[in-house]
Amino acid sequence: MPIIIRPARAEELQRAEELVIRSINDLTERHGFGRMATSRPPDFQLFCLQDDADGLWLAEADGEIVGFALSWVSGDLWFLAELFVAPGLQGRGVGQELLARTFEHARKAGATNKSLITFTFNVVSQGLYIRHGLLPRLPLYLHSGTRDALVGRLNGDKLRCTPIEPRAPHFELLAKLDLGALGISREKHHRYLLGDATIKGVFLHDADDCVGYAYISASGHVGPLAVAQARQMGPAFRTALDLASAGTSAQVSAFLPGVSEALGIAAEHSLRITFPMVLVSTHDFGDWTRYLPRNPGFM
């Protein structure tokens, strides 16, 4: 069965994401974590295709999608958001071929640092990335809990909130916060988030000073979140959890770096670790005491 590697097209992204979901759930179930991924529209994938089509690749056999890779670039950082091969075809070089295409994307974009987030228990993929110079740098943990465990119980300092609006002064402020926390500006990704009616973005203020931002999804998920100084993470995370618990979702979740003060706050309010993950990269970057990722693909 010949396998063809080619650029992805917009009309194929839903089928590609169905493959991603099957592959993730096959992996997490085999390792005793149960099903993690659920069906969702390929909105972020379509956004990435429209922004930079060089980052999306398919593996196809007999007209069926058997592999998919998605990478994006911001500044000098290349990030591999997704790389999955159909169960049953893994170990046959499909992943290597897709990875080669995405590395070419990094080269063409002039990226000087490559990074991704993968499951800690996926030792096969970690070995592949290590061989290509992407070394484990940071543990990350997806946390989740019930809204009821948070309502009225978030004691401690919080911050004042104002809405983020898609206009130049706000993008300049977001860029300043991202450059401080991550070393890169992510304006295009903020534009994507602000264009999603199911996501609320807020600036976080300490008195008259803007000290961070946070996004809260209708699903109760917190992130991304960034602060100007590490000492502001606690109040910022409490504020974001407060906003999440004020919504209608029965669940609240967040994706927390292993060095973050937010871990203690999550544990205090019965948010439990559901999946352990790890960030790998060719070079260290970012101050992860000041940033909470959104998810493994968005970062």
Kindly describe this structure.
- The structure is a single chain.
- This protein has 299 residues and is α+β, with helices and mostly antiparallel strands.
- The chain folds into two domains: 4-111, Aminopeptidase (3-Layer(aba) Sandwich); 143-276 and 284-292, Aminopeptidase (3-Layer(aba) Sandwich), CATH 3.40.630.
- It contains eight helices and 13 strands.
- Strands 1, 2, 3, 4, 5, 6, 7, 8, 9, 10, 11, 12 and 13 form a 13-stranded mixed beta sheet that branches.
- A hairpin with a 2-residue loop joins strand 8 (199-206) and strand 9 (209-217).
- It is globular, with a radius of gyration of 19 Å.
- The two termini are 35 Å apart.
Distance between the termini: 35 Å
Largest sheet: 13 strands, mixed
The percentage helix is 25-40%
The number of domains is 2
SSE pattern, N- to C-terminal: EHHEEEHEHEEHHEEEHEHEE
From the spread of the alpha carbons, the general shape counts as globular
Low-confidence stretches: none
List the total number of helices. Answer: 8
Describe the structure in brief:
By secondary structure, the protein is an alpha+beta fold. The protein is built from 8 helices and 13 strands.
Topology:
Layout (H helix, E strand, L loop, with lengths): L3 E4 L5 H18 L12 H9 L4 E6 L2 E11 L2 E9 L8 H16 L3 E7 L3 H9 L3 E12 L13 E4 L4 H15 L4 H8 L4 E8 L2 E9 L3 E7 L5 H13 L5 E7 L4 H7 L3 E10 L9 E2 L7
Parallel strand pairs: 4-5, 10-11
Antiparallel strand pairs: 1-2, 2-3, 3-4, 5-12, 6-11, 6-12, 7-8, 8-9, 9-10, 10-13
